[in-house]
Design goal:
Blueprint lengths: L9 E6 L5 E14 L4 E11 L2 E7 L6 E6 L4 E5 L4 E5 L1 H9 L8 H4 L5 H4 L2 E5 L5 E6 L2 E7 L9 E8 L2 E7 L2
Antiparallel strand pairs: 1-2, 2-3, 2-12, 3-4, 4-5, 5-6, 6-7, 8-9, 9-10, 10-11, 11-12
């Protein structure tokens, strides 16, 4: 499973009408997985505004595309064949389709190891700069890698997860 991160992520505050500000989060990279019966990889682009998000997964050479738009409650999914599924439970769909049971909606917080999945982990290990580097949660063994030459950088460059024969690798470029 050789992958390379694609684009930078950013957490940008953009002004809107009045005094209100909206958090816009964009994350881009690559994701690869293997399970006992499946494997795959894709480029991903995550964009969220408050509790609404859009996740685009694009396969090798731009072939195959899945667009997921939703909130914490439900999602609409459009595949490259034009199939549309409305009001889908995203976690259930990920398990049924890819055999992966992970809190994908926590991805923006997990890039800084600030998500509940990381906070509630056991057997926590930290690097010499005090950043969370390894933990276990819900049967997953998780390893996070940061930029080696930037000890103050909190954003993760890579997350590797393993539970039994299921492996998942997410690469970010920040």
């Amino acid at each position: 499973m050789l992958l390379a991160g694609c684009q930078p992520f950013s957490n940008v505050k953009r002004p809107v009408t009045g005094q209100e500000q909206v958090d816009v989060i964009e994350i881009m990279g690559r994701i690869a997985f293997t399970t006992p019966s499946r494997s795959g990889s894709a480029q991903f682009k995550w964009k969220s505004v408050k509790s609404a998000y859009e996740l685009r997964l694009t396969g090798r050479l731009g072939i195959g595309r899945i667009v997921i738009r939703g909130t914490n409650e439900s999602a609409d999914i459009v595949t490259s064949t034009g199939e549309t599924m409305e009001n889908v439970d995203l976690q259930g769909w990920l398990i049924d389709t890819f055999e992966i049971d992970l809190p994908i909606l926590d991805l923006p917080a997990c890039i800084r190891m600030n998500c509940d999945f990381a906070k509630n982990g056991n057997s926590r290990k930290y690097d010499s700069d005090g950043r969370l580097q390894e933990f276990e949660n819900q049967g997953w063994s998780v390893k996070a890698a940061y930029a080696e030459n930037e000890p103050d950088e909190l954003a993760v460059k890579e997350i590797q997860l393993q539970r039994g024969e299921t492996r998942l690798r997410i690469l970010f470029d920040s």
